[in-house]
């Protein structure tokens, strides 16, 4: 009988990525997962790691300070897609780092995504302190600022991409709310304004609200800015009842007339 093939540990991204521990023979899904694990290891243990050579067929991760630590990874013979640590020295003989390039803006955004989701207004000083406390790594205000932008873009979506889908959004609203009024205004193909009055809200106002409409405008924060014009009513419980709203480039007489004419 042939000897049984040795069983090698498999890297579990859901469990091991926060605090990676490496073994000779450990298997990874691909080189991308291997390098991400090495970077996380560097941040967690305060080492700066380099990769060379770094190709599609082999990758060596080693300590930037020149100590003996290294990991040599390449695809498995039987399964070309799976990457395995073939050899290495797993102990460092150098000191810790307080500045670590692996703690990049992208890494911080991914690591602290839930904190950004819970508090989108998280201050830069708080981000810097969290990284310093949890990872013992110092980052700049610029890195914290970029990390916050990356996280908020992931949470809120890319505004440029969303703007290209406005017509799809209009069709979806008309499909799910038949009888609604949704208008666009463009100037030589450039978006200027959008008006939305959903049929259920309009019918509900006419059926059960006082015949009073209040209008107001406010600034929009984001890549494109602009103004939000709104028309609201008062329901039977003296609560605000939305009737219609519009996104315009600026608050002026022309845009208010356009909004009120559609509202009427």
UniProtKB/TrEMBL annotation:
Pfam family, one: MULE
Residue ranges of every copy of the MULE transposase domain listed in the record: 212-261
Transposase MuDR plant domain segment(s): 22-74
Protein name: Uncharacterized protein LOC120267252
Organism: Dioscorea cayennensis subsp. rotundata
């Amino acid at each position: 009988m042939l000897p049984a093939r040795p069983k090698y540990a498999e890297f579990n991204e859901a469990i091991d990525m926060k605090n990676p521990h490496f073994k000779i023979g450990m298997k990874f899904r691909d080189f991308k997962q291997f390098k991400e694990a090495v970077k996380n290891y560097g941040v967690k243990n305060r080492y700066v790691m380099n990769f060379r050579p770094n190709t599609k067929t082999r990758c060596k991760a080693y300590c930037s300070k020149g100590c003996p630590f290294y990991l040599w990874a390449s695809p498995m013979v039987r399964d070309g897609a799976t990457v395995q640590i073939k050899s290495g020295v797993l102990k460092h003989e150098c000191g810790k780092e307080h500045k670590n390039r692996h703690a990049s803006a992208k890494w911080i955004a991914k690591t602290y995504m839930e904190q950004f989701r819970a508090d989108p207004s998280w201050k830069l000083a708080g981000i810097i302190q969290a990284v310093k406390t949890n990872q013992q790594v110092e980052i700049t205000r610029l890195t914290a600022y970029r990390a916050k932008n990356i996280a908020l873009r992931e949470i809120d979506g890319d505004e440029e991409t969303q703007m290209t889908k406005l017509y799809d959004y209009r069709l979806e609203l008309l499909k799910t709310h038949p009888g609604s009024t949704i208008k666009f205004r463009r100037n030589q193909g450039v978006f200027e304004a959008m008006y939305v009055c959903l049929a259920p809200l309009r019918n509900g106002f006419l059926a059960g609200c006082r015949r009073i409409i209040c209008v107001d405008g406010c600034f929009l924060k984001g890549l494109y800015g602009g103004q939000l014009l709104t028309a609201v009513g008062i329901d039977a419980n003296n609560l605000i009842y939305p009737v219609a709203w519009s996104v315009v480039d600026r608050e002026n007489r022309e845009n208010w007339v356009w909004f009120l004419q559609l509202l009427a």
